[in-house]
Amino acid sequence: MTMVFGIPIQAFLGQLLIGLINGSFYALLSLGLAVIFGLLRVINFAHGALYMLGAFVAYLLLAELGIPYWPALIIAPLIVAAFGAVIERTMLSRLYDLDHLYGLLFTFGLALVIEGVFRWEYGASGQPYAGPDLLSGGTNLGFMFLPTYRAWVVVASLVVCLATWLLIEKTKLGSYLRAATENPTLVQAFGVNVPLLLTLTYALGAALAAFAGVLAAPIYQVSPLMGSNIIIVVFAVVVVGGMGSILGAILTGYLLGIAEGLTKVFYPEASNIVIFVIMAIVLLTRPAGLFGRDA
Amino acid sequence: MSPLLQVRDLHSWYGESHILHGVDLDVSEGETITILGRNGVGKTTTLRTIMGLVRQRKGEIRYNGEDLIKVPLHKTAHHGLGFVPEERGIFATLSVSENLTLPPKVAEGGMSLDEIFELFPNLHERRNSRGTKLSGGEQQMLAMARILRTGAKTLLLDEPTEGLAPVIVQAIGDVLRTLKSRGMTVILVEQNFRFASRVADRFYLMDHGRMVGTFPVKELDANMAMLNDVLGV
Fold this sequence. Notes:
Number of domains of chain A: 1
Strand content of chain A: under 5%
CATH topology of chain A: ABC transporter involved in vitamin B12 uptake, BtuC
Shape of chain A: globular
Largest sheet of chain B: 6 strands, mixed
CATH topology of chain B: Rossmann fold
Radius of gyration of chain B: 17 Å
Structural class of chain A: mainly alpha
Distance between the termini of chain A: 50 Å
Number of helices of chain A: 11
Distance between the termini of chain B: 36 Å
CATH architecture of chain A: Orthogonal Bundle
Helix content of chain A: over 70%
Order of helices and strands of chain A: EEHHHHEEHHHHHHH
Number of strands of chain A: 4
Number of helices of chain B: 9
Oligomer: heterodimer
Helix content of chain B: 25-40%
CATH class of chain B: Alpha Beta
CATH architecture of chain B: 3-Layer(aba) Sandwich
């Protein structure tokens, strides 16, 4: 049997893949957080709740209306984006002139409210959600059995992250977004409707979270607590990547997912804390994050 | 004919501090005026208040017959005003061409990119660089050029020559004369008195948050006493 550092290569590659799949969720979620933080300067504690909301909207679309996975993958993010836009316009936007702490407290409270509503309705246990038939089954890779759906998660996450990055770096809308991140007042003085841009940005972040939620629904069960379970890790990812760095958020998401997976091979006991250990080390040595610019 | 821009009894505040104490200002179409005054008398604040960047304001700002006081910041530019801030406001995360095309078009008749690159050949050479990699002079050119593209009819220009080498200052003077020949209205805040007297039609003297005098550039000699008094030179 081939060994890598005294570990069977099967176990090594298997955990690498699992890490990549987890990293796919981290990347999608931390990307949304980074986009929102960059422009709105709000640490969006409701991000986990929006992720959970995406999964629940997909679940309800199927259970109540019979709308299956593929349309739900588009519809659920749109619904959650619209919800995010309403939240931003009616509530969050009133807090921009205050200390950033208020935005954090508000989104934290919002997350508790959203989760509370779903716990009250559905309890803490998970609801099963059927993935698409097209992606059932899997492939024997020799070193592991790869369910087709999980391969799809990696591909979908990569495509959406890349598309979002291109949107921000290469389009006109993206140049407004980058410029407004640097100096919102001047961009507004040029005649750009910056308040609308802020709303769209929050909606985009919400849509990314919801997209991750729908992707997660067939793997993990749809549960009111799924958001709060993952969001703490995602915050660590954003801190390691550097607050507000788009590319940093994406790359760090995948990297930390893989680091977590590999730790399961070498020292399983540490796999739950490895991300936070990395976060502590990065904060001590590079407080602005791996990809962040010093503020 | 009523002036293009008519400001009456304009007051503005930064928080508790009352900066403008009743500014009156008239600028005709195609005219270049320069606001002179010591540091801290409210010259920059006058531009920022007209543009709507200072929101705590009271009085009348009539532009093309419309009162701008109630117009939100992101709609002011669409009335035809373009702002070039003192710190130039070039974006580091945008390339030179992205910086150039950032401000949306607000009216017909703006310069095309070709015309802009003819007027500012350096910008064409460096169009793929990051905006803040340009020299100070090039950044000033870029800050002006991006407004010229938008079709704005009035340029609010805050100390364009600050910290720049004489040859660049001369180039900016040339640009301002070109703009004038195209009918652009310019409101200039400038410490460089010699530069100002080469490009302006008329001076406004400012002290303690209001305008204390105005005279055409050709009556400069007759007004030297007042100028010295206000500028304290």
